[in-house]
Design a protein that fits this description.
293 residues, alpha+beta, 2 domains, six-stranded mixed sheet, three-stranded antiparallel sheet, 2 helices, 10% helix, 25% strand, elongated
Length: 293
Amino acid sequence: MEYLKVSILLLLGVVFSISSCKDDEETCIETVWYEDADDDGLGNPDVSQFSCEQPDGYVTDNSDTNDAGGSGTPLSAFDDFNPEAVTFSFDGNEVTIESNGLPNHTSPYWEDTHPLHIEQVVGDHLTPGRINSGSFTVTLPLDPQLATSSSATGLGAIGISVTGAPIFNDEEGPNRPLDEATALGFDYAGGHNGPSGYHYHIESSDVPENTILSFDDEQLVGIMADGFLIYGRKCNAIGDHPADLDESGGHTSSTQHSDGEEFYHYHIINEFYINSYILLFGGDLQGTPNTIF
């Protein structure tokens, strides 16, 4: 009889245990979580785990193609852009940049009645036309990747500068490289007017009128059509001209915007192009180019 009582108690214990497990399983709905190493809210599709509760450092999103911490575009860099000309719209891991092309510095290319108009202080002539409002739009990844092969730039805008004016390459027309005669029509900002409006080709000049543009320093110059930032000739990480640049002026290091984290970006290459002129960007894009409309 005692044996029968023990057996019944054991059986009841097993039933209770099974019932408890079943209740736990019903209240626990496992979710797949993806590692978010760079804390951008986007998860790595290759690193995941199942859990009822969200693990630290994991999210439900799985769209981050580059989850290496600190390797994306530092968002604080966008604070350096001219807010009167440039706006940013963020959507997931992309940013759409829109600019009216109106720079926030003086120039002889402004209309004579404009408050930013000055007489020419460099060069010997002006190209036809004045600075007018335009429209430049591009959507870029916030974590741009180096491509397996570089891409040559073409005519037109290849980047958006911090002032809002577009960045052009080393060509003035089809199969027509910049020459000194053309450069003598640039203002101190390294820009002039053309069929598509006011734009930059070269680094700005070291003149008293230049109060905001990069000249042989580490300032942010803009962002290129592949999503990589471009800085002045000097590197914030070393306080001098970097010696490890690739053929496009790019390298991986920290900047004043990245809080010590390293990421790939461009610099103006510290080399003269024609006489005393230094190009803003004369190489290939090392990432995947996006069209600036």
